[in-house]
Amino acid sequence: MGDFWIILTGSLVAASCGILGCFLILRKMALIGDAISHSVLPGIAIAFLISGSRDSFLMLLGASVFGLITVFLIQLLQRGGLQGDASIGIVFTALFAIGVILISRNASNIDLDLDCVLFGEIAYVQWDTLILNGYDMGPAAVWMLGGTLLVVLAAVGLFYKQFKLCAFDPALAAAVGIPVALFHYLLMGLVSLSTVASFESVGAILVVGMLIVPASTAYLLTDRLSTMLVYSVILGVLCSAGGYYAAKWIDTSIAGSMITVAGILFLLAFIFSPLHGLVARFAKRRRLKRVPMPLN
């Protein structure tokens, strides 16, 4: 039964992150997930100091607020003329450092392990169960991540056309009356929620990998957004299951194995994708060279 809960937890993370990752890839904002996953640490620390609990709703709220603050500061620096990658680097390192200071200064008051936040330990999710009216409802992480996935699906399902148009052509979206800034911050809020919900169970590193790699692989396999979303979820689930059994086989990190499998799948798509793979592009160039040039 433990195998099932671990794979299910990884699959839930992969599904929610894969859906959001598609929009981040299309908007050329892949690294924003890395920035948010580190810069929400002050929000988590402050929530712990206020509530004294790791299981409170205040943790999600504090982290989500700092996720939105991160996005706002990055946008502010970009509007001031700074390059996008520099803006991301400055904001997330500064906020992450503040979080580390808060934790180190109040270590006796905060029951938080930085290694747990960054790397997580998905193998232990089966032991942290949700007890409701005396009944064991299963791992708390599954309920948390399942709820997060439902929120992501509801938001994307309700505003799919708006998210799609904002991703491909923000200028046109603004011209037809869509509040581009609102949907930008809604997307970033969902990324923050998914990142924070996955912290203790799988760690930030796995979340960042699931935000970027399956969506990038799906991008190479199709030119349709709806198909890309489906492919990204399927690839994420395959990475979770394949990574777990690979880790069990060679006795190593489960999170590391999941991202390694994701990297292998991306490499295969990069080489053999019928649309954008190296083999397909090489064959296309060969065909073009064989076409005789018209004589004047």
UniProtKB/TrEMBL annotation:
<feature type="transmembrane region" description="Helical">
    <location>
        <begin position="56"/>
        <end position="74"/>
    </location>
</feature>
<keyword id="KW-1003">Cell membrane</keyword>
<feature type="transmembrane region" description="Helical">
    <location>
        <begin position="202"/>
        <end position="221"/>
    </location>
</feature>
<keyword id="KW-1133">Transmembrane helix</keyword>
<feature type="transmembrane region" description="Helical">
    <location>
        <begin position="253"/>
        <end position="280"/>
    </location>
</feature>
<dbReference type="InterPro" id="IPR001626">
    <property type="entry name" value="ABC_TroCD"/>
</dbReference>
<feature type="transmembrane region" description="Helical">
    <location>
        <begin position="31"/>
        <end position="50"/>
    </location>
</feature>
<dbReference type="Pfam" id="PF00950">
    <property type="entry name" value="ABC-3"/>
</dbReference>
<dbReference type="InterPro" id="IPR037294">
    <property type="entry name" value="ABC_BtuC-like"/>
</dbReference>
<keyword id="KW-0813">Transport</keyword>
<feature type="transmembrane region" description="Helical">
    <location>
        <begin position="228"/>
        <end position="247"/>
    </location>
</feature>
<protein>
    <submittedName>
        <fullName>Metal ABC transporter permease</fullName>
    </submittedName>
</protein>
<feature type="transmembrane region" description="Helical">
    <location>
        <begin position="6"/>
        <end position="26"/>
    </location>
</feature>
<keyword id="KW-0812">Transmembrane</keyword>
<feature type="transmembrane region" description="Helical">
    <location>
        <begin position="172"/>
        <end position="196"/>
    </location>
</feature>
<feature type="transmembrane region" description="Helical">
    <location>
        <begin position="86"/>
        <end position="104"/>
    </location>
</feature>
<feature type="transmembrane region" description="Helical">
    <location>
        <begin position="140"/>
        <end position="160"/>
    </location>
</feature>
<dbReference type="GO" id="GO:0043190">
    <property type="term" value="C:ATP-binding cassette (ABC) transporter complex"/>
</dbReference>
<dbReference type="GO" id="GO:0055085">
    <property type="term" value="P:transmembrane transport"/>
</dbReference>
<keyword id="KW-0472">Membrane</keyword>
<comment type="similarity">
    <text>Belongs to the ABC-3 integral membrane protein family.</text>
</comment>
<dbReference type="GO" id="GO:0010043">
    <property type="term" value="P:response to zinc ion"/>
</dbReference>
